[in-house]
Amino acid sequence: MKTSELLLKLKKEVERYKEIVKAPEKTDNSINSIMSRYNYENFQEILTSSINREDEDVDDFMVEDLKMRIDHYFSLYAPEDKSFREFIKIISTYLVFVAKKPLHPPGTVFKDGYRVYKGKDRYICTGKRKFMAEELSLCRYCICRF
């Protein structure tokens, strides 16, 4: 599948959330608030974006593997929230394969002090090496470098 095809598919899938997803009200710097704002920004971006670069090939197996890893994560931390799980699959697929942006926004500081930031020409996650060791880690697909 091409990047443009994937984006069109994601646009169709995200349509069902237009009436549900609202701008986050919290403006604190907790990880939940930061992620809510980032997810909302990318939700809006999916609705309005188009491919403005070379149309690349996207490996269908990798897309499905990312979704399976998200299913695994949610089965551990939020098994009852199926609608949010599907929303996050759309956002994450967009971030990884279309937008080429990190799964956590630059400026994110994790509770153990690891952080995500934008370097000169790439994104860095100081915890990626550790997080990659977790079973079915989503970090495998994140654009961030160590």
TrEMBL record:
<comment type="similarity">
    <text>Belongs to the UPF0305 family.</text>
</comment>
<dbReference type="InterPro" id="IPR019215">
    <property type="entry name" value="DUF2115"/>
</dbReference>
<protein>
    <recommendedName>
        <fullName>UPF0305 protein MCBB_1428</fullName>
    </recommendedName>
</protein>
<dbReference type="Pfam" id="PF09888">
    <property type="entry name" value="DUF2115"/>
</dbReference>
